[in-house]
Design a protein that fits this description.
202 residues; alpha/beta; eight-stranded mixed beta sheet; 8 strands; elongated
């Protein structure tokens, strides 16, 4: 009799655990994507070799989960909505791809990993913010600098803040909006590099 009760309790426990597992949300993984219009070309007067890097990200974003900003002082992590690769890898890669798409006549490589020498320009970027608000507003903030590749001297510096409203409050829409902010920053950088190149040859 006792054995039967124990078996019944064990069966109920296993059933309960199985039902709990079925109800647990599945983790979804996301990647940033290049979103600049392929028809938009920013042409320099002559072909350039551009190095992108180093690129750093804010420590609070350097985690698997997508970060939701609930207030100026509070952020929340979406436990089951995560990046498919470390953001410290994915964000620089997408920024580089956007700039390369905008400047198809130029060579754009990661610095220092894959950049040949000599460089014409090097772009250093420090992302200080990269998150989405509860209402779906994606915000990117970054300090970026352009250095002359030949002399190493600082040629230009700017702090940019870019926002994009997501279509809704889903993680899919949030990542799409974040991707658009990276695309807008890429346009700013590409335009400034082309302007510096034009000035140096005039």
């Amino acid at each position: 009799m006792m054995n039967r009760k124990r078996c019944l309790l064990l069966a109920l426990l296993m059933l309960s655990l199985a039902l709990t597992a079925c109800r647990s949300p599945q983790t979804c993984f996301y990647t940033l994507t290049s979103v600049v219009d392929p028809g938009v070309n920013i042409q320099a007067h002559s072909p350039l070799t551009i190095g992108i890097g180093p690129v750093s990200i804010a420590g609070y974003t350097d985690r698997p989960e997508i970060v939701i900003r609930e207030s100026p002082y509070v952020v929340r992590l979406r436990d089951f909505r995560q990046w498919a690769e470390p953001l410290a890898n994915g964000l620089p890669a997408v920024l580089l791809q956007n700039i390369a798409n905008l400047m198809p006549g130029d060579r754009v490589d990661a610095f220092p990993q894959a950049t040949p020498s000599p460089l014409d320009y090097r772009v250093q970027v420090d992302f200080t913010r990269f998150d989405v608000s509860k209402s779906g507003q994606a915000t990117l903030a970054a300090r970026w600098q352009i250095f002359d590749g030949k002399t190493g001297q600082l040629a230009f510096s700017r702090t940019s803040t870019v926002s994009e409203q997501a279509a809704d409050t889903s993680a899919d829409a949030a990542v799409a909006a974040l991707s658009r902010t990276v695309g807008k920053l890429a346009v700013e950088i590409a335009e400034q590099v082309a302007m510096l190149a034009a000035t140096s040859t005039s």
